[in-house]
Design goal:
Chain lengths: ~180, ~375
């Protein structure tokens, strides 16, 4: 039997699942971004620290994200629009899921590519029609996967990755959001 | 005797198991319709016949109010006096109380809420549309019945188990039984916790032996929506993940049917069954509804088909886990002389079906007398 290696340490994840079953408090994580207005609709958001396993944690390095609007929105386009960050999050979360599930199921991946499209009626955010929502009308993800597996096994990988995806859940289910002025 | 079948089930309910497969030790079905499905009244008769034949000393009309440890056994308080015993079999079932999600508290007061334990038939619900929450056997059966009564019906569902009633001209439960799927033991299953929490399959027992999957419901005019995620300001919000739960159910069904095909091929049983069949994927609406205003009067009632749980309030023995579930190993409870029967996947996949009791009972009784 050849060894399947998608670069995911599934054993560590399975061990963590067992360990956290009896320690729900350690499983409580808080992810954190700080954002700063630059000018116009241009802002930068920085991510470095988070909380989890009962302690403050840090990424190896700080990452700065630039957000802006495109020129067709009469902006300077220093970076992608905030709603495009949702597509980034969804694509990377589902891709990570595909790799993890494939590793766990003993499926060797050769390539995993996806296109994520969010359909957006901008009359909502412009206040042009009160019946149109602000967010996406719908989101479509198309995967192209080359792997040592049948079409059905690949479909099952993609289905399972949605089932265990944090971002998929956050986008498909309502979440309580509190915004305060400190 | 057979109290839950007499008083706690809706009028149209029939067993999911065909008659020929509904057997108790020494009592096989001997009526005229082996491929049919018993009504609740027929189940009551079936159990009464067994009681008569087995001559077990049943005390009818007696409610157990508490069970607590006593010297060398258990003290059982009942509405007809107290008992002492050395061994005790918990056979009170898995479906004593309805499970209703906490978010039901946000449903406007004008909307009537019922559980399958109160529901008898469509005539008892107020006028207007019905939101059925839950896609197990109960949810799909009640959604179909309510829709046929002429009401607008919306069915909210998350992960579910799709099955055809017949596969290759045989009842799907014939396949479960014959191919050995139902004999899979609790100690051979990868994720036992998950297997024990599996919702009942989307099946119904009807004289027509028809399939009641989501496509059949869509054809009846039932509107499918995602899992009910929240009620906010009187508005029900549904998950946008309906398509994936339907894909998962389609994939799992096809995988199960493929194991049946493989079993028939390997065992030379092809002649006993019809040709292989394929079922179309579940048709999901192009843009499933994400919210439903419960304040507008469009929805008159909600049916919570969101599962059942056992009632152990009378059990004063520390054998429940932090989620209130009975801790047991194949029916052997972690207390001397205490065993359980009739719970999901107790010892085998067939444990909750009437014909599953015989082997399970032998095993736990062997343990008791040892």
């Amino acid at each position: 039997m050849t060894t399947v290696d998608n670069g995911v340490n599934v054993q560590a994840l399975l061990d963590a699942r067992e360990a956290l079953k009896g320690a729900p408090e350690a499983a409580q994580f808080t992810w954190k971004a700080t954002a700063k207005w630059e000018n116009g609709v241009h802002s930068t958001a920085t991510i470095k620290n988070f909380f989890g396993l009962g302690a403050e944690q840090s990424h190896k390095q700080e990452t700065v994200f630039t957000a802006d609007h495109p020129e067709v929105f009469a902006a300077e386009d220093h970076g992608i629009t905030p709603i495009e960050y949702l597509l980034v999050g969804l694509a990377s979360c589902l891709t990570a899921g595909v790799a993890s599930v494939a590793q766990n199921r003993g499926i060797q991946l050769r390539s995993v590519e996806s296109t994520v499209e969010g359909n957006h009626d901008i009359r909502g955010i412009l206040g042009a029609d009160s019946d149109v929502r602000n967010g996406f009308n719908d989101v479509k993800v198309t995967f192209n996967i080359d792997a040592d597996a049948s079409k059905e096994e690949i479909e099952a990988l993609v289905a399972q990755s949605q089932k265990r995806s944090a971002v998929y859940d956050a986008l498909t289910n309502p979440t309580s959001v509190t915004v305060e002025v400190a | 005797m057979a109290n839950s079948w007499r008083r706690e089930r809706w009028d149209s309910l029939r067993l999911l198991t065909p008659n020929w497969l509904s057997r108790l030790p020494g009592q096989d079905y001997d009526g005229p319709d082996p491929d049919g499905y018993m009504t609740t009244g027929e189940v009551v008769d079936f159990i009464e016949r067994f009681a008569l034949a087995s001559r077990a000393p049943v005390r009818t009309g007696t409610e157990v109010t508490s069970v607590r440890p006593a010297d060398g056994g258990y003290h059982v308080a009942t509405s007809q006096g107290d008992l002492l015993c050395r061994g005790l079999v918990l056979a009170s079932g898995a479906c004593n109380l309805p499970v209703v999600p906490e978010l039901s508290a946000g449903v406007p007061a004008a909307v009537t809420q019922v559980t399958p334990l109160d529901y008898r038939g469509p005539g008892e619900l107020p006028d207007g549309g019905v939101l059925v929450v839950g896609g197990s056997a109960t949810g799909v059966q009640l959604a179909a019945e309510l829709r046929r009564s002429g009401r607008p019906v919306t069915l909210a569902l998350g992960e579910h188990v799709r099955l055809p009633r017949l596969y290759r001209k045989r009842d799907v439960l014939w396949w479960m039984d014959a191919s050995g799927v139902w004999d899979q033991r609790y100690d051979e299953i990868d994720d036992l916790n998950r297997a024990r929490r599996l919702p009942s399959p989307q099946l119904v027992g009807t004289p027509e032996r028809s399939t009641l999957d989501l496509n059949a419901l869509t054809e009846l005019g039932v509107e499918l929506v995602g899992r009910l995620a929240m009620v906010r300001d009187g508005v029900a919000l549904f998950s946008g993940g309906l398509r994936n739960v339907c894909s998962l159910a389609d994939l799992k069904m096809r995988r199960l049917l493929a194991t049946f095909d493989e079993w028939a091929r390997a065992g030379g049983r092809e002649d006993e069954v019809g040709p292989p069949e394929e079922f179309p994927p579940t048709v999901v609406p192009a843009a499933p509804r994400l919210s439903l205003d419960l304040r507008r009067g469009e929805i008159g009632s909600i049916v919570w088909a969101t599962g059942y749980r056992p009632d152990y309030r009378w059990l004063d023995v520390p054998v429940l886990d932090e989620k209130g579930r009975l801790r047991h190993e194949g029916g052997v409870v972690d207390a001397p002389g205490l065993v359980a029967l009739g719970l999901p996947m107790l010892r085998r996949r067939r444990s909750t079906f009437i014909n599953g009791i015989e082997d399970d009972a032998r095993a736990v009784i062997d343990h008791l007398v040892r």
